[in-house]
Amino acid sequence: MTDAPLEIRSVPEPSPCPRCTGKGSLSARVSYGWTNSRGIDVRGWNHVTLCAGCDADAPHAAPLITWFHVHGSVVGDNCEEFVVLLTDWAEHVRVPELDQAALEEEIDAWRCGEL
User: Fold this and answer.
1) Residue 1, SS3?
2) Residue 93: how many other CB atoms lie within 10 Å
3) What is the distance between the alpha carbons of residues 90 and 108, in angstroms, rounded to a whole number?
4) pTM of this prediction?
């Protein structure tokens, strides 16, 4: 279960999936943070996207993906079921851990003028 704040907004089109660039079903912002080498807390927001292709095998995402395939959008008679599935998904959303090696490679590429 996540203890980080999660922000879900209703938008006409969710963000594309950053993993596969496919169409996302739902987008959310998740608070995250770490303590840097100076002992200072670093806080921020990261976007997560519910993707039918990438999240189909995730136990807390699959029912919500199926719900979107069946219903398409939230309307008065299906909102209670949606809220239950959304809450279950949201309680298990995780921001990926920072890949320090990839960050260092990107910093080096920037310093060399490759970005």
Assistant:
1) coil
2) 19
3) 35
4) 0.69
Q: Decide: helix, strand or coil at residue 34.
A: strand
Give the span between the Cα atoms of 6 and 29, in whole angstroms.
6
CB within 8 Å of 79: residues ≥ 6 apart? none
Give the three-state DSSP class for 106. helix
Residue type, position 82, single letter: F
Structure-block tokens of residue 41: 């807390």
- The two tokens of residue 37 are 């080498």
How does pLDDT run across 19-50, given as a tens digit for each residue? 899 988 888 888 777 788 899 988 888 888 89
Q: How confident is the model at residue 3 (pLDDT cuts 50, 70, 90)?
A: low
Report yes or no: 69 and 53 within 8 Å, Cβ to Cβ: no
Output the six-digit token pair for 38: 């100076």
Structure tokens at 75: 């309307």
